[in-house]
Amino acid sequence: MAEYKSKHAIVSRSPYEVYMSFVDMRNFMAYLPEEHKDKVTADFDNLNISVQGFNIGITVSDRRPYSKITYSDREAPFHFSANLCFDAVSSEPSKTEFYIELDAELNFMMKMMIGGKLKDALDKMVQGIADMSEGKMPEGVDPSMFQNGNFKM
User: What tens digit of pLDDT does each residue of 92-113 get?
Assistant: First the structure.
C-alpha cells in the first residue's frame, strides 16, 4: 500500500463541528452540482458513485467521535482507506487541525498515472475546507454552499 499524507491546516470550527460535517455520507449530496446528483447515492454509512463506467463504493469503516473518521472502499478500481483527522487546537477550542491520511493499493500503472496527483488533491481538499471555514471561496466552489457569509458545516 502506498501512503499519502496531506498538509495540516487549521479549520475555524470546533472538532465537533468538523467531525459532524463528515460523519454522515448523505451530507456530501448537498455539495454536488445538480447535473451529477443522479450518479451518486448515499445513506448514513455509504456513498456510491458511477463515473465514466466505474462504480465506486465508499463506506465509513470507523468513527472516533470528534477526532477521526475512516472511509474505505467497498467497490473501486483499487483498494484504499482514508483517515480524516480532527485534532483540537489546545489554545483555541473553536479551531481544529485537519488533515487526511490515505492508504491506496495502486498497481504500477495507477501509481504512474495518479500517484503524484493524490497528495496534491489531498492538500487542496484540506486547504479548501480551511478556507471555507474562514468564509473564503476556493476556486470551483458553488457560492450556494454559503449562507449569510458562513460556510455550512
Answer: 999 999 999 999 999 888 888 8
Question: In one letter, which amino acid is 94?
Answer: S
Block residue for cell numbers 463515473? 51
36: which DSSP letter? G
Q: What is the pLDDT of residues 1-14, one digit of tens each?
A: 899 999 999 999 99
Distances in whole angstroms, Cα of residue 41 to Cα of each of 18, 35, 69, 72, 113: 22, 13, 20, 16, 27
d(CA 118, CA 1): 14
Residue 142, C-beta contacts closer than 8 angstroms, at least 6 positions apart: 31, 33
Q: Which residue has the cell 488533491?
A: 121
Contact 44, 25 (CB under 8 A): yes
Distance between CA atoms of residues 63 and 51, nearest Å: 27
85: β partners? 68, 99
DSSP assignment, residue 78?
S
Phi, psi (rounded to 5 degrees) for 11? -100, 135
Which of 48, 6, 5, 11 is CA-nearest to residue 136?
11
